[in-house]
Amino acid sequence: MASSKSIAIIFAFAALFISSASAAFDAIYCLGDSIADTGNLIREGLGPFGAINRLPYGETYFGRPTGRCSDGRLMIDFIADRFGLPFINAYLDKNATFVNGVNFAVAGATALDASYLESIGLIMPFTRSSLSTQLGWFEDHLASICSSPEQCSAKLGSALFFVGEIGGNDYNYALFQGKTITEATSLVPRIVQTIKDAAIRVIQHGARNLIVPGNFPIGCVPSYLTAFRSTNPSDYDGRSCLKSYNAFAELHNNQLQVMLQSLRVQFASVKIQYADYYNAALHLIDNAQNLGFDEKSRFQACCGAGGEYNYDSTRMCGETGTSTCPDPSKRLSWDGIHMTEKAYRDMVTSLFSGNLKG
């Protein structure tokens, strides 16, 4: 059953969109990672993540891969649809139009610069296009469409701006490359400050409607459940998720929310909203059957190579030796890391409507 706290927070997020609908946003800008990337990584060069540029990625809605890390649409696509906007094109798609905004998100991107993460011993497996790189792209884009700061401010004032979700990969790389949760915790203040700096930067350019999402309950994600499987029952909560990893995600989210409150005080005329992806995802897990998902497969990837959670980091979805479940709409997880189109759609539905029933 969803907690009263999760219901309140998701209702608040829904209220933002309901109250903002009359604002008639004419554009969406997005910074982030694979949760929102609509095609930047595949144009940057895929490296070890080449599978996202071939089927079954994209099979459900597009019938072909688009660079989205799912079987179909992402939350950013459903949110654009809610405002009557077309899908927001990837910045690196030079044949695209950007009349209704730009998507700067890159799958695998980090909040912190790659050079810093490498200095503490981490390997950047997919991209070096961190949050600062994406901000640079954003400012380059502004320079191409605005002749003055005043004109840019006017354009951004009627747009919706997503700063994240970002930071999740910083933690993923740390934890999956052997860092302890305690060591990963030392990154949290730096990551939160980096997100704050990014928010201030876009506000200074004229953004007036910001959404800053938090991290997901990573202890419920098949990749984490597989990599950090424990023989100690006390390591799991009542949902069968890893308690310590969810607690870590909550630590990040709590610090992020404290930071956002300080921004609201600093920029009183700007609407700054926290998007609680953590509790929205738990709502799907807790109400899987009622929402049309297979209750017994809540923690199993649709596309994978077998095992308890149908996830194998050495054989990712789309590679030889993997297979796809008959109906992705029955699963929450697509590839053990990212959600299915149906799960993303239900996340957005909950965030918009607040229609949560325990």
Structural description of this entry:
- This protein is α/β, with parallel strands linked by helices and 358 residues long.
- Strands 2-1-3-4-5 form a five-stranded parallel beta sheet. A two-stranded antiparallel sheet has the order 6-7.
- The longest helix is centred in the last third of the chain and has 24 residues, at 243-266.
- The termini are close together.
- α9 packs parallel to α11 (243-266) and α12 packs across α13 (341-353).
- The protein has helices spanning 4-20, 40-44, 75-82, 114-119, 131-145, 149-157, 168-176, 181-185, 188-204, 222-227, 243-266, 277-286, 341-353; strands spanning 27-31, 101-103, 159-163, 209-213, 271-275, 303-304, 323-324.
- Mean pLDDT is 92; it is low at 1-12 and 14-22.
Q: What topology emerges from the helices and strands here?
A:
Blueprint: H1 4-20, E1 27-31, H2 40-44, H3 75-82, E2 101-103, H4 114-119, H5 131-145, H6 149-157, E3 159-163, H7 168-176, H8 181-185, H9 188-204, E4 209-213, H10 222-227, H11 243-266, E5 271-275, H12 277-286, E6 303-304, E7 323-324, H13 341-353
Parallel strand pairs: 1-2, 1-3, 3-4, 4-5
Antiparallel strand pairs: 6-7
The largest sheet is: 5 strands, parallel
Q: Over the alpha carbons, how many angstroms does the gyration radius reach? A: 19 Å
The helix count comes to 13
As a percent range, the share of strand residues is 5-15%
Number of DSSP E strands: 7
Shape: globular
Question: Strands across the major sheet, in which order?
Answer: 2-1-3-4-5
Poorly predicted regions: 1-12, 14-22
Mean pLDDT: 92
Helix-strand topology string? HEHHEHHHEHHHEHHEHEEH
Give the structural class: alpha/beta
Q: Please bin the fraction of helical residues.
A: 40-55%
Distance between the termini: 4 Å
